[in-house]
Design brief:
- The radius of gyration is 31 Å and the shape is flat.
- The strands form three sheets. The chain has a six-stranded antiparallel β-sheet, covered by helices on one side.
- It is of the alpha/beta class.
- A hairpin with a 2-residue loop joins strand 6 and strand 7.
- It contains 19 helices and 15 strands.
- It is 55% helix and 18% strand.
- It starts with a strand and ends with a helix.
Length: 553
């Protein structure tokens, strides 16, 4: 579960650190206070790409760090072991966005790529965003809900692997077939192309490396001047940053024993001094590496011209595609009998891949169909509990001709909220409030099977109020007995159900505003729920009502 979230220099957040606990955590705040900013920061931890402009102060990096307790979740430990990462019952995930806009990610202080971060995120947190209710109308999301409820994620992944293998086999077969159909009349021309590409000594990734080196050599003087200027400002001029920082550190250290509360400031200054010294050393090394080299510049230019000409000629977007095209040409030189033998082998591989795919598709479909009755029954029970007494929800699977990304079938969710109205397509018949309730029901069913440690709801209560909101809060409360649940809400009925209550608010200061987050005391919580009940002007009746919701006499 999520135990701590620290955000530094992200959008409207200067510095923020908050601890999370087990059970149901409620987050409230006025519209525009920055609740969505919190989720945006957390999404960086889960591997989402950073949008431009997230760095608040352009003079320092943006850092988001989250700690997770993964004790009792062996699948997460297994993922760490598979990726040769340090294994602990606590995982610390850190995402750094530099002032230049570059991103770095770390798990337990080891650098990792975004794909691994997304894979870990899918096993550790599910975030239900405000717009996600609309996903209920999409076939792919409906299938994912069924698979989540039935615990079929691994079976679906096996199907997708079989589909990828089949498509790859089919592509190779078709390429080989096309080569054979060209006949021997094109043999010489194919050989000429192959010899030309072979003579070019193509290397995957070479183009990008050369382009980067060309950019450096072409602007060597400009780069050196910038590095030299920076170094001069940091440590060489009379009033430079490095000596000033060193002097400030010395002054603070002298009085730490007289004023102990300065110890943290002294330590932080020392860290800054060491970091700045390291940066200066890096600048010196990089400045020495950047040299004018007209001969090398000419070599790179000629080599890139050769690569660009070959890519234009063969209509390839990269050197990697040129290499693939060159290797495919080599098959054209073989004799017709050999080509036919290769094609026959590839035909066999296609048949085998299709058989495996068909078995995976059938197994997945049967498992889904087996789960549907129980899913229907439990969902309807929850919908009726949430104020739709005559709810009907029918889940169907229709076999498709083609193999899709998620299976060889399409789902059909039929819904009716009224006894006299026949069930119709969910996308066409359900209102916004009904979609919110259906989504909560589905999510509550799904998490029972996934074993997910944490789920975050961003206004799952859209379109509901009053008694229904109170019942939605009870479902969230029930879910929180087996997992950590965080709910962002504007409704007092749901807010009163939390074991912990956090508030997001904006703080004005001389340069603008910043988003803050803090945990409410018991008395503050009464006033916050009263605010949700009555608006900006809190009345005595609202305070009394808030106490009733919180069961406070």
């Amino acid at each position: 579960m999520l135990t701590r979230l620290t955000i530094d220099n992200y959008v409207l957040i200067d510095t923020l650190a908050i601890d999370f606990s087990k059970g149901l955590t409620i987050i409230t705040g006025e519209t525009g206070a920055g609740k969505s900013i919190l989720l945006g920061a957390l999404s960086l931890i889960l591997g989402q790409r950073a949008e431009s402009g997230v760095v608040k102060d352009a003079l320092r990096n943006c850092v988001v760090e989250a700690s997770f307790d993964v004790k009792g979740h062996p699948e997460i430990i297994k993922l760490l072991i598979q990726n040769e990462l340090e294994v602990e019952t606590e995982i610390i995930v850190r995402r750094v966005i530099t002032i230049a806009g570059k991103s770095r990610a770390f798990i337990n202080d080891s650098p990792v790529g975004l794909p691994l971060l997304r894979q870990l995120g899918s096993q550790i947190i599910d975030i239900h965003a405000q717009h996600e209710n609309l996903l209920l109308r999409q076939s792919d999301f409906q299938l994912q809900l069924i698979d989540g409820y039935a615990g079929l994620d691994e079976m679906r992944e096996a199907y997708q692997e079989a589909l990828a293998h089949y498509r790859s086999s089919l592509l190779l077969r078709n390429q080989q077939k096309a080569i054979l159909e060209k006949g021997t009349s094109e043999q010489e021309y194919l050989r000429f192309q192959w010899e030309q590409l072979t003579a070019a000594r193509l290397i995957a990734g070479e183009q990008q490396e050369l382009e980067e080196e060309l950019a450096t050599l072409s602007h060597a003087q400009e780069i050196r001047e910038a590095l030299s200027g920076a170094l001069h400002l940091l440590q060489e001029q009379e009033v430079a940053a490095m000596p000033l920082l060193r002097e400030a550190t010395t002054l603070i250290q002298k009085v730490v024993r007289l004023y102990p509360s300065l110890e943290d400031s002294s330590a932080r200054l020392e860290v800054l001094r060491i970091e700045l010294k390291d940066i200066c050393s890096e600048i010196v090394v990089k400045e020495e590496r950047v040299q004018d080299n007209p001969t090398r510049l000419e070599e790179i230019t000629q080599r890139l011209d050769t690569l660009y000409n070959l890519m234009r000629k063969h209509k390839c977007a990269s050197v990697a595609e040129l290499i693939g095209y060159r290797d495919s040409l080599a098959l054209g030189f073989k004799g017709t009998e050999e080509l036919e033998a290769i094609l026959a082998q590839q035909e066999k591989e296609v048949r085998q891949a299709l058989q495996r795919l068909d078995v995976c598709a059938v197994n997945l479909s049967e498992a889904r169909k087996k789960a549907l009755p129980g899913m229907e029954q439990k969902a309807v029970e929850r919908l009726r509990y949430l104020g739709i007494p005559h709810a009907i929800l029918l889940l169907k699977l229709n076999e498709e001709k083609d193999y899709g990304t998620l299976g060889k079938e399409s789902p059909e969710f039929l819904f009716s909220a009224n006894r006299e109205v026949a069930p119709g397509a969910l996308a066409q018949i359900a209102s916004g409030g009904e979609l919110s309730r259906i989504m909560l029901c589905m999510k509550s069913l799904m998490v029972q099977s996934t074993g997910l440690p944490t789920i975050i709801f961003d206004e799952i209560d859209l379109g509901v109020s009053g008694r229904i909101a109170d019942k939605m809060g009870e479902i969230l409360q029930e879910m929180s007995k087996n997992m950590q649940v965080v709910a962002i809400t504007h409704l007092p009925q749901i807010a009163s159900k939390g074991a912990t209550h956090l508030t997001v608010y904006k703080e004005q200061y001389e340069r603008g505003s910043r988003t803050c987050l803090r945990q409410l005391s018991s008395q503050e919580r009464i006033m916050e729920i009263a605010r949700l009940l009555s608006g900006s002007e809190v009345t005595e009746a609202a305070v009394s009502n808030a106490k009733q919701l919180l069961n406070i006499s």
